[in-house]
């Protein structure tokens, strides 16, 4: 095949000592910045962007390949260890990953995440090389109505899956939608819920909300229980670093399922990797319930880490393909990469392969090299990162608070964001106190603007005809799947309530 010969030429260009060194440096720097709570892969690319401007284009983009995927690998590390994901794409990984860490299996969770990131990125990059034109056709079939249906599907499906109570899940979703409405309406220019403050015109940053709910909320929750439960803040750092054969066999289907979720979203501008990671997590939770897997939601399940991590990195890999072939930045990190191309006088798109084919194929080859290097680094460092949990609890949680504040302040240099961080942290504390799930809040904040914009665009195009929202096969299929998921979730919750009441009556009878 023609693509294979071009890729071999790319490997020939990438396999030089200098280029391998740039990939390694980029991978180390990207991982190091991505590990920091509140920074993430996009921050890694933004902070390290000026470093590459003194290099020639080939060396610069090879280093960017390492930074890009290194940041993705690092995003989940802080989430697993400290319950503070570096980016929205790592939120779903955090749920089961942090449970594994608290049960003494931090290194195992990190190894599962590293392998999932490698498998997802490898499959996606391979598809970019050979099948990008076919996936691009799928992306062009989506219009405003399809994007709105996709967002609604993600809203309701996730809210009903991640919570023990559908009502609490939908209430949490409502909280997230309210937070997403803060700021200036992009279409009318009207301010909403800003209370007259100009600093709220841009809305609340997803970094503020994510770090507040997950990190600061967890710190406050642990602090409130520390005297009643001295072990509440103790996270053991022991555990196996390498995955056993049984672990690998168990996680492999989850890695592949997660990759299947992530690949299509890499070419669909639907909010980045958040939707596929949450959908992959929800799927694994449903499958765990069907199997009777008691680890999921208690001590932590490696499938709950494997699937979201593979989904996030396969989305990232396909996003680079969409950027190179279409000039379409799917995520914030891809947008920064596009800015880097433009800095060198290049415009990503179909003509890039004709005008700068040598650079593009060398860059694609460096993706494969970078993924292998990152797998080696992260598998070796999984035990080292887990040693962070040996830090005395009072210093660790104080450090989480300081790094959270620093990460939020570094994004906007705004004091008011720190006050909002504290307020949302208190909200996260009360949500934990009364068993409200935080995942629906986060997915609503991330996808709320996308849903609103596409709803209004669809109604504008159809001149107010609501029927246009279900006028295509794709929307009909998504709403039908949503209806089935809701009925299934309702029946499942009703059965669990009946079982709980039955067990309570039996205990009462026995005690009497």
From TrEMBL:
Q: InterPro entries recorded for this chain?
A: DUF112_TM
Q: Which parts of the chain span the membrane according to its record? A: 109-135, 147-163, 169-188, 200-223, 318-339, 359-383, 395-422, 471-491
Per the database record, which ranges form the DUF112 domain?
20-442
Q: Which domain of life is it from?
A: Bacteria
Keywords in alphabetical order, please: Membrane, Transmembrane, Transmembrane helix
Protein name (record): Tricarboxylic transport membrane protein
Q: What is the lineage of its organism?
A: Bacteria, Bacillati, Actinomycetota, Actinomycetes, Micrococcales
